[in-house]
Amino acid sequence: MEIRVNGSRVVLAEGDITDEETDAIVNAANSRLAGGGGVDGAIHRAGGPAVMAECRKIGGCPTGKAVLTTAGNLKARYVIHAVGPVYRDGKSGEAALLESAYRESLKLASAHGIKSTAFPSLSTGAYGYPLEEAARIALRTTVDYLKEHQDVELVRFVLFGRQTYDVFAKVLKELAAEGKG
User: Fold this and answer.
1) CA distances for 83 relative to 80, 107, 120, angstroms
2) Residue 60 and residue 33 in contact, taking contact as beta carbons nearer than 8 Å
3) 22 falls within a domain
4) What pLDDT score does 180 carry?
5) Which of 14, 75, 92, 149 could disulfide-link to 21, CB 3.0 to 4.6 Å?
């Protein structure tokens, strides 16, 4: 599924983010930038030791923020490590932190001349964020950013599993119907 926002495209795909050939891929990182499970572990394994070496130099990243490293052995040129929140009760600032993680990733892309980027669904795996709410935040934040910044030409959401794809597709259709896309 795809929508256009100004001159940019937002595309949904089901697949493995480590296979993406966009300029950058976004990693669902932890605040220590220490690698881990899920998307984080897959990106570090596929990227090889160069990604971890740069993460160690950076040292860490606060929740809601993002940092940029090389992509090592990946097809992408860069990895944007975004730290989403652990979901507690929905009343502890999680929505603002998740929105910030997406927005800060897009700002890094703009600042580094990155024209295409691929996101996973941040915070919905081990961090427990409810999928539909997270999809709404991810897509609305992306669409709003692209309305103001045409330098990022393509934002792909590379979603692991049919259920995640279907939820994102439902939310994207709703946003398009509301005139947000």
Assistant:
1) 10, 14, 12
2) yes
3) yes
4) 55
5) 75
CA distance 25 to 17: 7
pLDDT of residue 178: 83
Q: Residue 179's pLDDT is what? A: 72
Residues 6+ apart with CB under 8 A from 16: 42, 158, 160
Q: Which range of residues forms the domain containing residue 94? A: 2-175
pLDDT digits (tens, 9 = 90+) for 26-36: 999 999 999 88
Is 181 among the domain residues? Answer: no
Average pLDDT value over all residues in the chain: 96
Tell me the torsion sign for CA atoms 142, 121, 154, 33.
positive
pLDDT attached to residue 37: 87
Give catalytic status of residue 23 as yes or no: no
Domain count, the chain: 1
- How many Å apart are CA 19 and CA 130, to the nearest integer? 26
**Whose CA is closest to 160, among 1, 13, 30, 3?**
13
**Parts of the chain with a pLDDT under 70:** 180-181
Nearest alpha carbon to residue 10 among 107, 126, 106: 106
